From TrEMBL:
Gene3D superfamilies, sorted: 2.60.40.790
InterPro entries registered for this protein in UniProt: A-crystallin/Hsp20_dom, HSP20-like_chaperone, Small_HSP
Pfam entry (one): HSP20
Annotated ranges, domain SHSP: 21-132
Cited SUPFAM superfamilies: HSP20-like chaperones (SSF49764)
CDD domains: ACD_sHsps-like (cd06464)
Protein name per its UniProtKB record: Heat shock protein Hsp20
Swiss-Prot/TrEMBL keywords: Stress response
Family: Belongs to the small heat shock protein (HSP20) family.
Keyword set includes Ligase: no
């Protein structure tokens, strides 16, 4: 298979790799939004073995871990090897307004979806205002 070689694109990629190099887990991009009574977190994890994905909650901390292992190709001459392998990690502080007992996750087509329900006490609700019926029920404020 022939590949075109653009030296400027290759230099840009190498410089980007060097400038963003961080030892340890790699960054996973996510989208997070609220949809009614739940938060939806979508994390891009293409090429990850679903068995390596770990989602856990410890108190108010949601942690997502995953691992991508490279294919073992011994004795080959690499023409391009741009897909990064290794560990991925993201952590999120949940706060008090979520129901951490009912968090669910699924992995489909390289995207991890985590559904985080809003707790009952954090959902918006209407407070009924009652009108006083008698003079005794009416309160007066003196300053």
């Amino acid at each position: 298979m022939a590949m075109s070689f653009d030296p400027f694109s290759e230099l840009d990629r190498i410089a980007g790799d060097l400038l963003t190099f961080r030892p340890g887990p790699k960054f996973m991009p996510v989208d997070l939004y609220r949809d009614g009574d739940q938060y939806v977190l979508s994390a891009d994890l293409p090429g990850i073995d679903p068995g390596s994905v770990d989602v856990d909650v410890d108190g108010q901390l949601l942690t997502i871990r995953a691992k991508r292992t490279g294919a073992a190709h011994e004795g080959v001459k690499w023409l391009a090897q741009e897909r990064s392998n290794g560990d991925y990690l993201r952590q999120f502080s949940l706060g008090d307004g979520v129901d951490s007992e009912k968090i669910s996750a699924s992995y489909d087509n390289g995207v991890l979806s985590v559904i985080i329900p809003v707790s009952e006490r954090a959902k918006p609700r209407k407070i009924e205002v009652k009108a006083a019926q008698t003079a005794d029920e009416q309160k007066t404020l003196t300053v």
